[in-house]
């Protein structure tokens, strides 16, 4: 079971996708979906590699501001 769906539910979803996009566009759709998943995974890996939090680049002086 994928996402709590049985084989019949998956077959119905596949049939609906086939009717909507047509058999000629399914390879393009699958390729685009695969590239998207790959980019998301790479982005998540890059984001998790940062161990130090991003700090502000503003330096402050200990002297009070005169008005």
Overview of this protein structure:
The chain is 57% helix and 0% strand. The protein has two helices and no strands. The chain has a domain at 7-42. The N and C termini lie far apart (69 Å). The chain is mainly alpha-helical. The mean pLDDT is 79.
The protein's oligomeric status is: single chain
Percent helix among the residues?
55-70%
Shape summary: elongated
Please identify the structural class as seen in this structure: mainly alpha
User: How would a crystallographer describe the biggest sheet?
Assistant: none
- Beta-strand residue percentage: under 5%
Let me know the number of strands.
0
Task: Sum this structure up briefly.
It is built from 2 helices and no strands. It is an all-alpha fold and 67 residues long.
Give the tags.
single chain; mainly alpha; 0% strand; 2 helices
Topology:
Blueprint lengths: L6 H15 L4 H23 L19
